[in-house]
Specification:
CATH class of one domain: Alpha Beta
CATH topology of one domain: D-Maltodextrin-Binding Protein, domain 2
Structural class: alpha/beta
Number of strands: 11
Strand content: 15-25%
Radius of gyration: 22 Å
Helix content: 40-55%
CATH architecture of one domain: 3-Layer(aba) Sandwich
Order of helices and strands: HHHEEHEHHEHEEHEHEHEHEEH
Shape: elongated
Largest sheet: 9 strands, mixed
Length: 291
């Protein structure tokens, strides 16, 4: 049994096909198939139902995937556990939302790299809901997301990093209009409702009984800001104090009464297989978070 074979098995279970799994683990489809064959021979059990067009796990397969997750998590934690008390080693796969990538995370990663040169970090971007699913599946070790909004994957825990407020942003020509006039009269550029931030905004609009005229629905905060700056409508976005300093060319008002806020958190699995590395990352982000 090899760790690469176990990673292939996990990838097939996660992505639902040998081809997509092969792309994920950077192997050929035939190599992934050989991994499964070798595991089945070693365990003396069929891991997939071959009568189906797409791979479907057998009962033995489900158990094998569960144990594979545990073995991989233990292996990935070894380097960090045996390092010197003041030095971190190993690999940490991080997911992050766009606002964190444009905010506190780069400075936090630079500080970690300077203090722990043997720590290897990989970073991927995405929306909160997507990143949470990838943490649950073991594809990412941790993710910096907004605070989970139901429904969200089971078995995740979160550590609060910092907080941001939600703000109404409008073209500067709209200065003087109150928030109800802005949101009900101008085209509304909506934050994608697949994102947890988008769901939070949508829920608050309903609570305030505000009917908006959606003209666009975008998953990029930078794109939304550019659309508003070009006079194409009004929007609601989460902003840090640093973001606010950069938006003096727009009309900006608090959203909600009291103002709606969101927590940005570090998500990881309940077992916390890389707890030491995750804690170091959380501390670094908190130190560099906008205030």
């Amino acid at each position: 049994m090899s760790l690469r074979a176990l990673r292939s098995l996990i990838a097939i279970a996660q992505h639902g096909s040998f081809a997509r799994a092969a792309d994920t683990v950077h192997l050929t489809q035939s190599a992934v198939s050989l991994h499964v064959k070798s595991l089945e021979e070693e365990f003396n059990a069929a891991l997939f139902d071959r009568s189906r067009r797409l791979p479907v796990l057998t009962d033995a397969g489900h158990l094998a995937v569960e144990r594979a997750h545990e073995i991989i998590a233990l292996y990935d934690s070894i380097a960090s556990d045996i390092g010197a008390d003041n030095e971190l080693r190993g690999r940490l796969k991080i997911g992050a939302i766009q606002t964190a990538l444009a905010g506190a995370l780069p400075l936090a990663l630079a500080a970690l790299a300077a203090e722990h040169p043997h720590l290897r970090i990989n970073v991927a971007s995405g929306m909160s809901a997507e990143l949470a699913t990838r943490v649950e599946a073991g594809e990412l070790d941790v993710a910096i997301t907004t605070e989970p909004v139901k429904p969200y994957p089971y078995g995740l825990v979160s550590t609060t990093l910092y907080e941001e407020g939600f703000w109404i942003i409008a073209p500067s020509s709209c200065a003087g209009l109150d928030f109800r006039q802005l949101l009900q009269q101008l085209p509304f550029i909506r934050f994608d409702r697949r994102a947890w931030a988008g769901r939070t905004i949508d829920r608050e609009l309903r609570r305030m009984r505000l009917r908006v005229k959606t003209s666009m629905e975008l998953d990029s905060q930078d794109a939304i800001i550019q659309m508003v700056a070009s006079g194409l409508g009004v929007s609601v976005v989460p902003l840090s104090n640093q973001n606010l300093e950069d938006l003096k060319h727009l009309d900006v008002q608090p959203f909600g009464s009291p103002q709606s806020t969101r927590r940005v958190v570090l998500l990881e699995q309940e077992e916390r297989p890389l707890a030491r590395l995750a804690a170091a990352l959380a501390q670094a982000v908190k130190q560099h978070a906008p205030t």
